[in-house]
Every structure is written in structure tokens, then in C-alpha cells.
Amino acid sequence: METIVMDQGMLVSGIILAASFILIFTETLHGFHRVKVAMAGAALMLVVGQGYGFYSPEAAFEAVDWNVVFLLGAMMAVVAIMINTGGFEVLASNIGKIAKGRQFYLLALLGTAVTVISLLLDNVTTVVIFGPLIVLICQKMKVSAIPYLMAAALLSDTGGVATLVGDPPNLMIGSAFDIAFMPFAYKMFPIVFVAWIATLFFMRYLFKEELAIVPEGTFEETIPYKDKTLWNKSLAILGLMVILFVIHNVIHWEPWMVAGTGLILLTILAKEIEFEDVMKNMTHEIPLLMFFVALFMLVGGVEGSKFLEYLGQFIVPFLIDPVSGEVIQENFMITCIALMWVAAIMSAAIDNIPFTAAMIPIIASLETVGVNIAALCWCLAIGVGMGGNGTHIGSTANVYIVTVSEKLAKTTGNPDMAITPLKWAKKGLPVMILTLCICTVIMYMFFDYYAIPLHS
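^ thats the sequence. predicted structure below, dont judge the formating
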């Protein structure tokens, strides 16, 4: 492997990336939203890259993983149409009735519903749907919404790791390394299921005081659908999309084409729905898409400068025997598990999306020197997914849930309803450590299974 020497362009690109990530992490301190920071960083990277000759507008456009952007955008639009049917409110109300005032049972039912939906619609979109519904359920029952809001985020963050479309970082990893829907699910579902079950019962312990309170309110009246026909059509379309996601590799369709097809079919079936109304329901999600585009452009510039390859070459001597040229298996397993923990810690600190965007090119550079990167990909996905639970900014779903709680605190005049960074850390950090310990043990025991090449 040819040695890469640090030059001025690399150094400057690395500084811009580091400064952007620090500003994204500290957005609550300086008040600049992370989308603005990412856009400013991408613009600066483009100007500097043109000056040093390692980046161009064309390269910036190509750096964006449009598969991820279009897939997320299409799924968000599908959900925006479904929201108008009132089906989610009916679902939440039915869950409230089934629970019959048993708080942990209600938390388990809501957590399961959020997780199952997040397996297909991604955890961000799911908590956007369920966040306000959870508040309504808890107000009706006259109990604290905090355990339920946090359960929605923590369980969807954990469960969302199981599928290719369940968590934005999964989309990025799958798209970068051409991992199809079913191979992803085969590898991730068992390990995530164990972690999810452990999380659910651990939350019973973490919120034992809040869940011990007997609710005063009950669910008596029946909530009607706003448009039951369209809700049923939407469920049918979602069912078709699941089938297409499962076979998308066989029919040679990218995941965004599946989501796009579902959206087109739904707009044809929902002829009475105006696109203006759909766009109104998507206003919360548009900044996320802009953040993705800017972030891909930002990281694309660093990749263009070869700074990430420069960093990657320091890992190679630890993984590959210089004499035989073969991968040192013992070191490789340690590296994979270490990556899982580092990814989790970094994701808790700076949001899992930017860290994933930065790690993908480094893993790709290891592949070019003959390293079987399969286990690295799975450990990265697990690490950034489980690590998202650690802090209130660890995942986009968490950020939204915190926003819902702050709005609740303002409307009720009760500041205790707001989920502060410290409140989150007391519950989310133990969950993150528990799930990582479980995943580490499983990864150690079944490492050969996770080390099977991606395209064997």
C-alpha cells in the first residue's frame, strides 16, 4: 500500500470537518441549528477544495448519496399522507384501551408499536408520528409522559437498527457497501431483538417510581377515523413495499425506487389528498433531508482531499501482518468490537449520522487493501444505533422527543415535563451501556457469522 503523506489541503479539510462536527455537537450552546452548520461547512469545504484542487461542484453533487435522500423523502411523504387518515390516533387509542391503566403494559405496547413501525418507516419518522400521540394518551390517563416519550425514542433507536430502512445510518451503510434488505435483516435482527427485550425490561426498573402510579384517567370514548378507506389503502401499500424491500435485490431496484413506487401508488389511490397538505405535514422532516445533503457534501470534500485515507492507513498495520499480508484475526475482532464502542460513544456525542458519514470512507479504504470489512460494517451499524441512546442529541429521534417534552412543559407550565440533558443521561446512558455489553458478548460468540464476506 502506497504511503499517503499529509499535505496542506488534507489538513485544512480535516480542520473544517472537525470544526463543523464540534459546532453540530454544541448547537444548544451557540444557537445555530445543525442544518445551518452543515450547510456552512459544506460551502466552505467546496470553496477551499476548489482552491486546493481536491474538490469541485460536480464532485460535491456526486458525493451526495441520493439513494438515502430520496428513500427518506419518499417514506416521509408516505407517512404525511397516512397522518391525514387519523389511523395512528385510532391505533394509539386502542393501545390505551387494551392497557386498561396498567402503566408498564401500556409502555410495552406503545414501545412495541413504535418499534414495529420504525422497522419500515425509520425511527425519526415514527417518533414524529407517536410523540404528540403519547402526550395525548398520558394527559388522558393523568400520568407523566416522560417514561413513554423516552421509551419511544430508546426502543425505536434500538429496534430500528434491525433493518436497512429502520435507521438513517443503516441506509448510509447499506447504500455505501451495497447491502440488500434481507441480508441486513438476517445479520442484525437476532442481535437487536435480544438488546431490545433487555431495554424494554430495563426501562421497567429505570422508571419504576413513575410506572407504579395508578392512572386516574381512562379510555372510554371511541376515536373515529378521518378517512378509514385511505388508511386501509395505505396499509396495503405498506405491505406491498415490505415485499418489494425484501426482493429489491432480485428485481434490481434500489430501495428509493421501492419507496418512490409506494408513494406514487398512494398518491394515485388518495386522489382527494392535495400535495400542499402533504408538504405541510413534512415541514418537520425537510431540515433532516437538507442536513443529509450538506453532510454528504462536507464529508465528500474530506474524502476528496484523501484525509480519511490518510487516517485509515494507521489502522492497516494493526490489522494486516506485514510479512504474510494476511489479516490478523485476533486483532481484527478486537478492532471490530472497539469500533462498536467508539462508534457508540461518538454517536452519543455528535449524533450518529455525521459519525457514520465520516467512518464509511475509512472502512472503504480498508476494503481496497484486502480487508474483509463485513464485521466492521455490522459493528458500525450496531455502535451508531445503540450509541444514539446515550444522550439527548445522540439521534435525530431523541432530539425530536426532547422538543416534544419542552413544548409540553411550556403548554402545561410545568418545567418538570421537559426532558433535560441530565434527565436523558440518567436513563439513556445506562440503556446504551447495557445494549452494548449484550451486543459485545453476542459479537464475540458469533464473530465468524458476522465476518462472512458481504457478497460471498
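The two ends are 24 Å apart (CA to CA).
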